Amino acid sequence: MPRSGTSQRQYHHGDLRHAILTAALEAIAAEGPAALSLRDLARRAGVSHAAPAHHFKDRTGLLTSIATEGFELLADALAEAADLRDAGVRYVRFAREHPAHFQVMFAPDLLRRNDLELAAAKLLASQRLRAAVATVPAEGRGADTRLAGIAAWSLAHGYATLLLGDNLTDPIGDEDPEDVFRSLTTMLFRSGNAP
């Protein structure tokens, strides 16, 4: 029986897992993934201290679930991209809208690397990025599509990381970050085949 009387009533019929994930994302956004503890999450979600372990086994399992969800969300965002530049903008938008996911997704030391769901989600996001690279004519991306994909990913990921770290506050001021990214890709890739 719960101590506060809120946990079972509030998080029944499958909502418990979602409540724990939501509390984890809030904690990561506020304090970073290093500060995350299952006991604190249970308190934040208003559930027993054993509930997070029941659903995720341990902190690594929880962070792996967050990363998996993040790659699935990113893959969904990239699926709608019209071309490589649009995929880059969608990547930046994803990072801005899901900063806690973004932090965890690219921290492999925090994750269960052999998790099959994580591997499948990463693969899907990677395939969507490669599909966007394939929209660029060969003369615009060169013969090595793998390197073109790495270049596009590096540009979007680097920009998003700088943006989330408040490193671009002064340089871009009040400009829309997505518009700045579009301008950046045009400036760097005059051929119009930019990410």
Low-confidence stretches: 1-13
Structural class: mainly alpha
Average pLDDT, to the nearest integer?
A: 86
How many domains? The number is 2
- How many distinct beta strands? 0
Write the layout of secondary structure elements.
Layout: H1 7-10, H2 15-31, H3 38-45, H4 51-56, H5 59-79, H6 84-97, H7 99-105, H8 116-134, H9 138-141, H10 145-164, H11 169-172, H12 177-188
Quick summary of this structure?
The protein is mostly helical and 195 residues long. Helix content is 70%, strand content 0%. The longest helix has 21 residues, at 59-79.
Please characterize this protein's 3D structure.
The structure is a single chain. The protein has 195 residues and is mainly α. The protein folds into 2 domains: 7-56, Arc Repressor Mutant, subunit A (Orthogonal Bundle), CATH 1.10.10; 64-188, Tetracycline Repressor, domain 2. The protein is built from 12 helices and no strands. Residues 1-13 have low confidence and may be disordered.
